[in-house]
Structures are given as structure tokens and as C-alpha cells.
Amino acid sequence: MTPRQLLDATQIAFLGRRLRALLDGARGNDLLSISLDLGGGDDDWLGVEDGAWPGVDLTRPACHWWAAPATSGGREYRLAIGRAIDFQSAGAARFSALQAAFAGLRAVWRHDDAQRSGRSPLAHLGFAFADESADGWPNAQLVVPAVLLQSAGGRRTATFSCVAAAGETALAGWLDGLRGNAWQPRRSPAPPLPETVGPLAGQAFMARVAAALQAIHGGQLDKLVLARSQRCTTDCAIDVATLLATLRDRHPGCTIYGVARGGEAFVGATPERLLALRQGTVQVDALAGSAWRAGGRGWAASPSLHDAKNRREQQFVVDAVRAALSPFCSTLAAPQAAEVLQSGALQHLRTTVHGCLQPGVAFFELLAALHPTPAVGGWPVATASRWLQSHGERRGAWYSGGIGWLDRAGDGDSVVALRCARINGRQAELFAGAGIVAGSDPAQELAETEVKLAVIADALRHARRRRPLAERAASA
Ligand SMILES: C=C(O[C@@H]1C=C(C(=O)O)C=C[C@H]1O)C(=O)O
Description:
This is isochorismate synthase. It catalyses: chorismate = isochorismate. Residues 203-452 form the Chorismate-utilising enzyme C-terminal domain. By secondary structure, the chain is α+β, with helices and mostly antiparallel strands. The protein folds into two domains: 9-185, no CATH class; 193-469, Anthranilate synthase (4-Layer Sandwich), CATH 3.60.120. Helix content is 29%, strand content 33%. The strands form two sheets. Strands 1, 2, 3, 5, 8, 9, 10, 11, 12, 13, 19, 22 and 23 form a 13-stranded mixed sheet that branches. It is globular.
């Protein structure tokens, strides 16, 4: 099935009838969602590879593509197009503002599932690392998409949402959204020209590591995560869909995400789950400590993943996550030993923290308690945040913040937005960071950020070699 064939005339007529039925008796600010069952089929229907769905167009004003490892194996895909509701917030109370908005939505959210798709409508969310940011991305955002396509376990659904005040015009908007994402002609991307990390960028990062180590040795802090960015420019527009497909193929254990707003896309492949909330149970990854294969690239050699520094670095995260969750949990599973998580050329230490929640605990309450974990901020959390702010730490878009989804019942997932870049036309800005504790070596920390930046840089390089099927066939 292609997007063009997504809905036939019978389904469009059916959608129109369901919309009219929902509108009957609705109040203007009610939120209405209608799900259609699109039948069984290949989950890669929503993949972004050449020829399958080249229409995932992240240069559109509002689009969110997501491919997460499914519990049953394979991938779970989501594509959100447009916005029925867009709520944004910033500042110290940003998560409680999102929670209040979400609770308000739930009270007026009506879902028609006449075809028994069994899938809940979803809202997607994203937020920046710090609670104030000024780089064109909303600091914290919750969106109910106008159109949501989902594919998992061989089942495909479409959910259409609008506020009742939009009336019957919503139908035309939904169909437009789908058309806009239909088969776009694609240009094959040209070779990106990554800016070499000049010695100055590397020296500047190592100087900041040295300053962080001084603060740690002075006893003010135990851990600080420092980030850096790298810009590169290509000689024609970066093909975001190919970049996403490359990340998806290369990082099977990661969640791949791409969010577009106003011509810019924020794209990444993260190994780290921040929060999964399902029917009163919670799961959080305490992920930190890194080792890598240098692969002859001239990066400093990796420390052992199990050395004292890496274990200490990860233990801060385990302790902080357990402390953050415990007031909300009736039971918190006993601490587990850390496992090794392989993610491309990197390895990390990971402990999954599980708990049973007390009744009524909301997703954003948990986010507010957890973020920033010492995996991305530092320890103690408040001192680390102040240190970063006063030392000019700059983190673009939603890097090291979170990105995720919530269903109508309030269950949901958020990942930590890592291994990512902000893409605008020919420009990419890549982000990565590393945790500093007593015993950290500045050259190794720099190398760690290089390996992390390479997740996107290598995918960008590879993406240029992939060409649309039509073009390949023409030149064959
Ligand atoms: C901050 C990043 O990664 C985090 C920091 C890690 C570390 O310091 O070892 C490991 C995994 C992530 O929790 C990043 O990838 O940018």
C-alpha cells in the first residue's frame, strides 16, 4: 500500500460519516478522533526506505516519524502529520503545564473506533534539556496530530483528529495532510562535507572538562555531563528520509525519531528510554558509562566499560532514578546488576529500574521528577544544572531532553533525545555529550563525544550513496 492508496472512496465516505456522527452533539472545544483499521500487512509500510514511503517529508511544517524496537521483535512505526492540538510551555512549571493541558484534553477527547482497530489515539511530546531555550524549537510541546498512521505487529491503522469547532472541514484537512506526504520526487543527496573538528573545538571542550573536574575535585559536585555540537554543510539539501532509514538499519536496538517543524528537522537514534508508563507500572533506563571501538579513526582509546569511573558514573544515575521514582511507587523492584548495552560502535552500562505506581500518578509528574537524570545533567542535579547554566552550556533543539508519545489513557513512552542532529536544508548541527566524574580524562571524554557524533555523521555520509529507486532504475 502506498500513501496514495491509503484511503479509497468508500473509506473516505465512511470517515466523513463518522465525523458527522461525532460532531452531532459535540461542544466546540471537544477533541474528536476517528480510527480506521487499514488491515494487515508489512510494518515497513511506514518505513522510509527508497520506494516504500519516500513521502515521509520532514520538510513539511509538522511531521513526526518514529520507529521503536517492538517488544515482539521488528519495529513499531508511527507517522504523525499536522496538528489538531498544539500545546507549548516553558519554565520551571513546564511539565505541570503539560500535565494540566493533557488532563483537560482527556476530559473532552471522544474516540470513534467503529472498525475496532483497538488502537488509542496518541499525542506526541518533546522537550528541551533546560526549561528555558531560545532556538526556534518549542521548549516543551504536546501535539495531538491531525493524522496518525501506525504500524506494528502486522496491523495498520490511521487515526484522524480535530477539535469539534473545525466541523466538517476537518475531513479536507486530513486528506490534504495525506496528499502532502504522497510520493515526493526526491533528489539524491550530495556528499556532506563535515567540518573537521578543528583543534580549537577539541581544545575548548577539553578545557571545559578540566573546569568540570576542578568543580568535582573542589567537592561541589560528583558528576557533570558536558555537551558539544558539530556543524556540517552539504552541497544540496539533506535527504532526511534516507538519513532516518540509514539510522533505522544500522541501529536496530535504538529508537529512531524525526520531528519536523517549519522546514527544520530534528533527527536521532537513541539507545536510552527515559520513561515507559503502562497500566500502573513504570520502567526507566539508568544508562551511563561508555566504551567504544576507535576503529582506526585516531580517537583516544576507550577506557574499560567496567572500570571504576564508568561504574561510578552509572551508579549516580541508578541512585537518582530510584530516588526520583520511589515517592510515586508502591513497590520498586530490587536493584539489578548493570548489563552491557551494545549500540553501534558504543557500549554502555544499563540498569532498568521497574516499579508499580501508586494510583493516579501522571506521566508528566514522573517526567518532572526524573528529568534531568544524571545521565544527561549531573549530580547533585540542581548544582549540576546551575553549573551548566553559568558555564554557558548550549544544547540545541531537544538534544538531551525527551521525545515520546502518550495515549488517551495517559500511558506512554519517552526516550532521551540523544545521538541526534538538527537539519535545515544543507546544514546539519550534530550534538553529543559525555559524563565527567573524578578520574575522567579530557582526551577520552573528547573521543567519546566524537564516537557519539559519528552515529549521525556516518549516517549522513552513507545517506548520500543511496538513491531513489526510480533514479537507480533509470541509470541501470
Ligand atoms: C549525553 C550523551 O549520552 C549519555 C552519556 C553517557 C556517558 O557519559 O557515558 C552514556 C549514555 C548517555 O546516557 C550523548 O549521547 O550525548
